[in-house]
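ok so for the tutorial part 2 we go from a plain amino acid sequence to predicted structure tokens. step 1 is just haveing the sequence, like this:
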Amino acid sequence: MKIILVLSLCSLCSPAPQYGGGSSQPARAPVQASPEVACRTEYAEVWDTEYVETETQECQTVQVKQCNTAYKKQCVPKQRQECQTVYKPVCKTEYQQVCSQKYRDETEYYTETECNTDYKQDCEYQWEGTGNNKVWAPIQGTCKNNAYDKCGDVQKERLKQVPYNDCSDVPKQVCNDVPSQECRTVTEQSCSQVPYQNCQNVPKQECQAVHKKVPKRVSKRVPKKVCDDGVAMAVLYRGRLRQLVAVVLRFALMLQRNKSNLKW
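step 2 — the prediction. this is what the tokens look like for a chain of 264 residues:
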């Protein structure tokens, strides 16, 4: 049934056979009246260019030199005098009087009272004589020996030990600690914090606004009046019919193959 439908469609597409006598002259087409002009409204897609204003941020990574102040230790040799106070003994000879107590003999004079006992006769006396020649004369038989003590100062001397200082100048070393300055040259490192610029490249995004107009293709459907004469319409319909026949043939062949595959 499908094949018959296809064949009938093909017969419509093929030109009709010309029947005539034995002569081989081509038959003339019948004269037909000129067809009227047929117009219709179609929608056609037309394209145009519009410019759209855009503003974008265009960024790029650049290396920016960034510096900051840092400090580092820097040392230089420096000489200085280092002094200290030392004490040294300074000695000198001094003479010192050294005395010792000694004793010597000295003669001491003194007076001492000494008493001696003497004996003498004590008699009774009477005047004898005349005139100026009278004297006291002892009376015989009245005399007695009586002891008499006679005392008197007697100068005497003696030796005695008298102390005295025996002095002499004795040399002596007298030492004193005298301060003095002893200095020496010392080399040492004099250090300080010195500022310097520590720089390094730091990535940075630099952006700028870019304002531009970009062409944009736009389409729109517009009504379009299309007018064809009869010949042109016949040609158009015949072309479309051929396309339809080709589609139907393709579909029929596909069905035929599917049926064969199902039998297997």
